[in-house]
């Protein structure tokens, strides 16, 4: 059995937890979590009693050495976040990296994460996509948006409800207001909604609401491949460039 297991937990609907996730939480010695109250409630719902230890962005560097010591002695731990998959826009990376460096086995259970249902509900291409997580709040934001403007893969962002209108407005400026986009709010919860429209329209639509609440994933369709770029990737003869588009 693995020393450390990353255990995804529901992003809203409490039914979204796997049998294996529950078994793992039952079997481990310790549950590392972002917020002991949030995860305490989940364990209570699952009728499990386990020691919990806070492991979050603000203490992970301090916690890692002593956790590694305990893991090396044979203790088994689960890492959970407040919601979804640990390590996806949540703490996890550091502990996983250090475990692997010491030859401690790490297991990652598949399970809920907000980006997948948002991507699929957008109806945009899902064969290739780029998960961008949270955009930089201030510094580097414009640069990142500029860099992404010509990305042809579907783009996925996490965003907070109080910044979504600003982000849609900025994206409309940089990507153009006609670029199709999709906002998924409160996935798997009672007031779940997905709005799909061009960036400019979405900005106006949500900007007209008195307040936006809940958690949000923003999905933006990739840029259309430019003609010159397309011929670069095309294995067909260059003469095709002289033919009209099919
Ligand atoms: N680890 C999580 C995951 O696997 O999706 C993400 C954690 S991140 C700190 C929180 C962000 O995830 C929110 O700001 C929102 O963008 C997104 N999110 C989480 N739950 C969501 C839900 N039920 N509906 C829409 N977005 C959600």
UniProtKB/TrEMBL annotation:
Its main location: cytoplasm. Its EC number is 2.1.1.198. Residues 4-203 form the Tetrapyrrole methylase domain. PROSITE patterns: RSMI (PS01296). Keywords: Cytoplasm, Methyltransferase, rRNA processing, S-adenosyl-L-methionine, Transferase. Residues 223-246 are annotated as: Disordered. InterPro entries: 4pyrrol_Mease, 4pyrrol_Methylase_sf, 4pyrrole_Mease_sub1, 4pyrrole_Mease_sub2, rRNA_ssu_MeTfrase_I, SAM_MeTrfase_RsmI_CS. The keyword DNA-binding does not apply. It is found in: Cytoplasm. The keyword S-adenosyl-L-methionine applies. Gene3D superfamilies: Cobalt-precorrin-4 Transmethylase, Domain 1, Methyltransferase, Cobalt-precorrin-4 Transmethylase, Domain 2. Residues 223-238 have a biased composition (Basic and acidic residues). It catalyses: cytidine(1402) in 16S rRNA + S-adenosyl-L-methionine = 2'-O-methylcytidine(1402) in 16S rRNA + S-adenosyl-L-homocysteine + H(+). CDD domains: RsmI (cd11648). It is an enzyme of class 2 (transferase). Catalyzes the 2'-O-methylation of the ribose of cytidine 1402 (C1402) in 16S rRNA. This is Ribosomal RNA small subunit methyltransferase I. It comes from Hymenobacter ginsengisoli.
